[in-house]
Specification:
This protein is mainly alpha-helical and about 325 residues long. It folds into three domains: about 60 residues, no CATH class; about 190 residues, no CATH class; about 30 residues, no CATH class. The protein has a two-stranded antiparallel sheet with strand order 1-2. A hairpin with a 3-residue loop joins strand 1 and strand 2. Helix 1 crosses helix 4, helix 6 packs across helix 11 and helix 13 crosses helix 14. The longest helix has 20 residues. The chain is elongated, with a radius of gyration of 30 Å. The N and C termini lie far apart (about 120 Å).
């Protein structure tokens, strides 16, 4: 018997990274190490490997198989319009969204190869105190409901991995859109909450003090740590933003009350720092002196103690 040769050679025309990722997940199914090692390769190299794999190992018409996969992708994946708002140049956005996905995975796990109807509700995407500030231990990435292959080293890479995570999940298309809308809403809310607007991203002293304050309270930020993207401000604001205001911890209390105490403690620290070289004096003076000092203070737009110091220093310089 003469062995017939295949007359069809597979040609993958797309250069869309999302579609190529989908092809690899379908064709290299069960070979996770292969996928992880290939994700950083040039797109053309990945496509060449896919074409070789399809041509050599499929008994079906290769091009018909590719068309079938493309149709399946369109049915089960969100459109690019749904994720265009994800800005790879916005480090805080990528930090917050990455943190959200990490927390969703921490809170919701599903065993690998267990075929269940995976559905994320609002409750699954709402995080209490322990979700935020308790580190995630001993959870296999294979159990993640939103699969993550590695940790990103840049906001651009984070954006790619966020999209891949949503694409490769077992969520329905409607649930994926619900998730995307939730993530977008969380980012929008981060600009509206006034209780942490006082935190200045350019004040390194303040950021480090708050970070150490949380450490003293055993409030860990491990769930928000990314290699090469370690930014204490992004970590703090992401944690505060995602912490559900309805969640009350026995020791720490509610989110609102904690942030009010945090701000008060910071203001007290600054007050102590500003008064390190100052000492209160009790001096009896005429009744009208208070009004006169107040008048001079208003005229110079200074505080009363500053006026008294100024007048004393001026007189001292004359006599010395």
């Amino acid at each position: 018997m003469v062995k017939t040769t295949k007359n069809h050679n597979c040609k993958i025309k797309t250069r869309d990274p999302r579609l190529v990722n989908f092809f690899e997940r379908k064709i290299f199914i069960g070979r996770d190490d292969n996928l992880k090692s290939r994700c950083d390769l040039p797109i053309d190299s990945r496509i060449n490997h896919l074409e070789t794999e399809i041509n050599n190992n499929l008994s079906l018409n290769p091009n018909e198989y590719i068309e079938k996969l493309e149709s399946e992708f369109l049915i089960n994946h969100v459109s690019n319009d749904d994720i265009d708002w994800l800005d790879e140049n916005n480090e805080f956005m990528c930090y917050l969204i990455w943190s959200s996905i990490n927390l969703i995975n921490k809170k919701n796990t599903t065993p690998k190869n267990v075929f269940t109807n995976v559905e994320l509700s609002t409750d699954h995407m709402t995080f209490n105190f322990n979700d935020i500030f308790t580190p995630r231990f001993f959870i296999s990435p294979d159990c993640d409901i939103l699969p993550i292959t590695k940790k990103p080293h840049s906001s651009k890479e984070a954006r790619v991995l966020i999209v891949n995570s949503i694409d490769s999940s077992e969520l329905t298309i409607s649930n994926k859109i619900q998730l995307i809308n939730f993530l977008r809403e969380q980012y929008s809310k981060s600009f509206d909450i006034k209780i942490y607007k006082w935190i200045d991203k350019n004040n390194e002293e303040q950021i480090n003090w708050i970070y150490n304050y949380l450490e003293e309270k055993e409030m860990k930020l491990d769930n928000f740590t990314l290699p090469s993207l370690k930014n204490e401000y992004n970590m703090l604001i992401s944690a505060f933003c995602l912490w559900n205001f309805k969640s009350v911890d026995d020791k720490i209390g509610s989110k609102d009350m904690f942030l009010l105490r945090l701000r008060k403690a910071w203001n007290q620290k600054k007050h102590r720092d500003n008064n390190q070289n100052k000492k209160p004096y009790n001096i009896e003076m005429s009744i009208d002196i208070g009004d006169k000092i107040a008048f001079i203070a208003r005229s110079y737009d200074k505080k009363k103690n500053e006026i008294v110091e100024m007048l004393i220093n001026q007189e001292y310089e004359k006599l010395n």
